[in-house]
Amino acid sequence: MASLxxxxxxxxxxxxxxxxxxGALAPGISTVRVTPDLGQARVYLSLLLGGDAEARLQDIRDxxxxxxQALGKRIRQTVRVVPELIFFHDxxxxxxxxxxxxxxxxxxxxxxxxxxxxxxxxxxxxxxFNNE
Length: 132
Prior knowledge:
With 132 residues, the chain is of the alpha+beta class. It has helices spanning 2-16, 53-62, 64-75, 92-104; strands at residues 28-34, 40-46, 84-89. The chain has 4 helices and 3 strands; from the N terminus they run αββααβα. The mean pLDDT is 81. Monomer. Binds 30S ribosomal subunits, but not 50S ribosomal subunits or 70S ribosomes.
């Protein structure tokens, strides 16, 4: 059910209701999670491109009824009840990019080379077996 909703919602947002985004790129749907009773669907949107993410999310939430009706027209032959759509901003891609930048900026010195000659300075390793 979740994958059906994800595919059909993407089609609705890109083809049926592109006017909701005022010429901006339609958001990508990263995940859809449906409650066990199929009454609600949590839709996580990727809003990286196209301006202010919070303003775009609020526009989508304001038009949730129209989006649900357009979705219902597309899947009415497949499901009995169209779930209530609850939209969330999925910022995992932005977080991953930030963490990549942080890790890339770390200055990690190379590990020292381990020479066999320096073993005299090391404490003796305990023997666990006789054949070591």
